[in-house]
Amino acid sequence: MSLKSKIMKKKNESIQRPISLQPGESASVVSPIYPSVVYASETPDMLDDQYEGRVQGYTYAREGHPNATALAKQIDLLEQTDGGIITGSGMAAITAAIMGTLSSGDHIVGGDQLYGRSLRLMKSDLPRFGIEVSLTNVTDISKVKGAIKSNTKLILVELVSNPTLRVADISGIVSLCREKDIKLLVDNTFTTPKAFKPVSAGADIVVNSVTKLLAGHSDVTLGYVVAKDKKLNKSIYDFIVTTGLTPSPYECWLAERGLMTFSLRFDSSQATALGLAKYLAVNENVDRVIYPTLPDHPDAAHVKQNLGSNGCNIVSFELKNKTREAANRFVKQLDGIAFAPTLGDVGTTLSHPASSSHRGLSEDERLTLGITEGFFRVSVGLEDISSLTEKFELALKHT
Ligand SMILES: Cc1ncc(COP(=O)(O)O)c(C=O)c1O
User: Fold this and answer.
1) Ligand 1: residue whose CA is nearest its atom 6
2) What is the tens place of the pLDDT at every residue in 282-322?
3) What's the whole-number average pLDDT of the chain?
4) Domains identified in the chain and CATH numbers
5) Pocket-testing residue among 89, 94, 117, 313, ligand 1, by greatest number of atoms within 8 A of Cβ
6) What is the pLDDT of residues 104-144, one digit of tens each?
7) 172-211 burial string, b = 16+ CB within 10 Å, else e?
8) If you measure from the C-alpha of residue 26 to the centroid of ligand 1, how many angstroms do you get, rounded to a whole number?
9) CA 159, CA 312: separation in Å to the nearest integer?
């Protein structure tokens, strides 16, 4: 008797499970949520078939569940990859990508302007496990070459750095990786697969913080990782399953819903971000504006080669008055814009790196990056450009 007919035949008064909830011949348009932690198989033979990949089926939610699969498949389509894995956060994806690839004694090179927690992982945690780390300027290929050692196995890059929006020399790094047999891991969170497809560009592993633009509503914390090489992908998957970096079905379901509008949100936010960048560039209270497609961008050639006409949804700028007092007044007056260190929400958010993401650096280290007290990063959401510029106009007058 099959498992399904066994389930249907249970007819006593006591509660029992599993009870089948098959919807009949019609199909649900929306993915159902599968909160089940365990999945029942028909026989030990069937379990063998599942574990050995001869039949598809779930066993235990930490190892995988339908909502994670549904979300991973959608992101695979966007990234033009296959076999993506969903994790409980973007940092879980980055950790798994590194720990699934490297062993003690290996060396990793990372961009020196990576996301703060990635930098912390590189500087403080990986060395504790015997992994050597070097950080370097990934916009300059000679610096990357100079950082390579005989035991270098992995390079971690974000195409666009946060918050100074410098753009890496990805094609130079891809050639270097091929020449030296080094794997390239790209964190595609800022750029998203709409603006840049790392695997098509030659990367071996891609991660995304799904928390940001892909899910888009600041109500889930999730990550995505995929490696082109199946063996490496399996090693990353095993690390995730063993260490429990697994996502919740509810969050996967919510992120899948958010993802349905990702493309529209991205296009709209990016167009508004360019409008805001142009507006800020001529405001008398603003000293400088950084946006990838503005003509004065320091890495214009890398932008053109990798992003085409895309600039993404982030604009950074610096006030003329670079004091903390002016920064406080500006934030206080910027009505209706959340002052919150995140990005990719449907609503525009503002962050002040000197007091948040880069507060751990000394003032001199911040100044080397160009981050003064007057430096701000805007993650542009879905508001009309006119309502945004009106708000910025008023707040900038108080600086
Ligand atoms: C570029 C980048 N990568 C990774 C992360 C980490 O993602 P999560 O917050 O989902 O762990 C972030 C978070 O801000 C990020 O900005």
Assistant:
1) 90
2) 999 999 999 999 999 999 999 999 999 999 999 999 999 99
3) 94
4) 44-259 (3.40.640.10), 262-396 (3.90.1150.10)
5) 117
6) 999 999 999 999 899 999 999 999 999 999 999 999 999 99
7) bbbebbeeeebbbbbbbbbbbbbbbbbbebbbbbbbbbbb
8) 39
9) 11
